[in-house]
Amino acid sequence: MPPLISDAEEMLSENKNPFWMHAKKQLFLACDDNDSVIGRIAAIIDYNYITFQDDKCGFFGFFECYNDVEAAGSLLSSAKNWLKEQNIDRMIGPMNPSTNNECGFLSEGFDMPPSFMMTYTPRYYLRLVEQYGLKKVKELYAYNMEVSEDSRIDRLKRVVAIAKKKLPSLEIRTMQESSFEEDLKAVKSIYNRAWEKNWGFVPWSDEEITDIASKLKTLIIPQMVIIAEAAGSPVGILISLPDYNYALKKLNGRLFPFGIFKFLYYRKKIDNLRLIVMGVIKEYRHKGIEAVMYEKGLKNALKLGYKNCELSWVLEDNIMTRRSAEMMKGRIYKKYAIYGN
């Protein structure tokens, strides 16, 4: 499925994407003997990542290539050598351009289309990077859950009752359009605190969260943004978005001049969700808040007529989130791999 051309251009634009305020890149193309482009790659340095993770490591990303070992090797070498020129010896990827965006090569689940803001890459990419000498350094999972599987409700009710008894001040609400800006601050605060110890995590800057919000504001379903508060302060979030890829695949990469009408028509027919964010700050974990947010989200999804939900992506070693997904009867149905030297 082709991405929106305008989104791809904006992602790489230093004038439009605030990510490049703390990062830099070098782009490379591979051409055959007829000067036809057969591959591309970006070498990326995210200084926020290096500082926050204390890891002097660069990225490769936006990798696309024909099934050509020589071309792939030349692209990866170009990225690696440019990073070395910047005094960075380690390289991992693909990051497009960071873990806050699309990342990873698809390694299982090739018979299914990608969900919104997730990658789809050919199987042979794995062979190309492995033949070059890169090794898998991390695996990411996508879980599939049936929203209509209502046997979870009774189980969740028991956990919710216990959680509310332990935390009488716990309140669960949904995002309100009237307080969008205020809720946005809560989302940023929880996101940056809840994920700070995760592998590869980089906190959103103020400019990035504002940019993300401006793009997602018209796509968010308020009932599917769940905010947990304890003693009046936000402590947890759960955000699900409709799987807009169902509509976007009809556009062939172009929203204008006529694609917008197709998008508006097909978005009404979307019955799948992608749960993109679920987290609780450290001080309030293991208190059942995740289950309370799951229950609220599940009930709202059922009311809105959604049938399935993808929970992605989840780190292979994020045991707590994996257990939560399995408690919700989710099953791993796609895997993604991050490679490095």
**CATH level-two architecture of the largest domain:** 3-Layer(aba) Sandwich
Question: Taking Cα atoms only, what radius of gyration do you get, to the nearest Å?
Answer: 21 Å
Counting copies of identical and different chains, the oligomeric state is single chain
- CATH fold label of the largest domain: Aminopeptidase
CATH domain class of the largest domain: Alpha Beta
The ordered H/E elements are HEEHEHEEEEHEHEHHEEHHEHEHE
How many separate helices? Answer: 11
The total count of strands amounts to: 14
The rough form would be described as: globular
CATH superfamily of the largest domain: Gcn5-related N-acetyltransferase (GNAT)
Helix proportion: 25-40%
Compute the separation of the termini in Å.
29 Å
Strand content: 25-35%
Structural class: alpha+beta
Biggest sheet architecture: 12 strands, mixed
Give the averaged pLDDT, no decimals.
93
How many discrete domains? 2
In the predicted model, the low-confidence regions spanning at least 5 consecutive residues are none
How would you characterize the overall build of this protein?
The chain is α+β, with helices and mostly antiparallel strands and 341 residues long. The protein has two domains: 5-141, Aminopeptidase (3-Layer(aba) Sandwich), CATH 3.40.630; 145-334, Gcn5-related N-acetyltransferase (GNAT) (Aminopeptidase, 3-Layer(aba) Sandwich). Helix content is 35%, strand content 29%. The strands form two sheets. Strands 1, 2, 3, 4, 7, 8, 9, 10, 11, 12, 13 and 14 form a twelve-stranded mixed sheet that branches. Strands 5-6 form a two-stranded antiparallel sheet. Strand 1 (23-31) and strand 2 (37-46) form a beta hairpin. Helix 5 (152-166) crosses helix 10. The longest helix is centred in the first third of the chain and has 17 residues, at 69-85. The relative contact order is 0.17. This is N-acetyltransferase domain-containing protein. InterPro entries: Acyl_CoA_acyltransferase, BcerS-like, GNAT_dom.
